[in-house]
């Protein structure tokens, strides 16, 4: 799919899809990441592994993917558990608890 996240993801996830085992979020910015999380909620369960590509160790990490995940968890009333961290690639893998 070609286009902005907010223009493409809602229609992509509006079709019936199986629960995802792994989702890699390569959105970088807050607005793109929160859109991707909200749009993909229907395919996420407690066994889904969510990978964020620039979750930490960048100048604005607290305001981008980290904040989007925190806000998403507040919206859907869940928490998350970090299951893996790569300081080399700045990636973090999490599982949502209570989704």
Structural features, described:
The structure is a single chain. This protein is an alpha+beta fold and 99 residues long. It has one domain (20-97): 2-Layer Sandwich (Translation Initiation Factor IF3). Helices cover 33% and strands 23% of the residues. The chain has a 4-stranded mixed β-sheet with strand order 1-2-4-3, covered by helices on one side. The longest helix is centred in the last third of the chain and has 12 residues, at 65-76. The radius of gyration is 13 Å and the shape is globular.
Helix-strand topology string: HEHEHEE
- Biggest pleated sheet: 4 strands, mixed
Unreliable stretches: none
Overall CATH architecture? 2-Layer Sandwich
How many DSSP helices? 3
Q: What distinguishing features does this structure have?
A:
single chain, 99 residues, alpha+beta, Translation Initiation Factor IF3, 3 helices, 4 strands, 23% strand, globular
List the helices and strands and how they pair.
Elements: H1 5-14, E1 22-25, H2 30-40, E2 49-52, H3 65-76, E3 79-86, E4 91-97
Helix pairs in contact: 1-2, 2-3
Brief overview, please?
This protein is of the alpha+beta class and 99 residues long. The protein is built from three helices and four strands, in the order H-E-H-E-H-E-E. Strand 1 (22-25), helix 2 and strand 2 form a beta-alpha-beta unit.
């Amino acid at each position: 799919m070609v286009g902005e996240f907010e223009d493409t993801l809602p229609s992509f996830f509006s079709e019936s899809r199986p629960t995802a085992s792994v989702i890699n979020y390569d959105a970088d910015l807050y607005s793109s990441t929160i859109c991707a999380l909200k749009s993909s909620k229907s395919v996420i369960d407690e066994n889904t592994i969510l990978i964020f590509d620039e979750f930490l160790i960048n100048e604005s990490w607290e305001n981008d993917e980290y904040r989007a995940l925190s806000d998403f968890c507040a919206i859907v009333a869940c928490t998350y558990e970090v299951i893996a961290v790569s300081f080399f690639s700045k990636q973090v893998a999490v599982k949502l608890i209570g989704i």
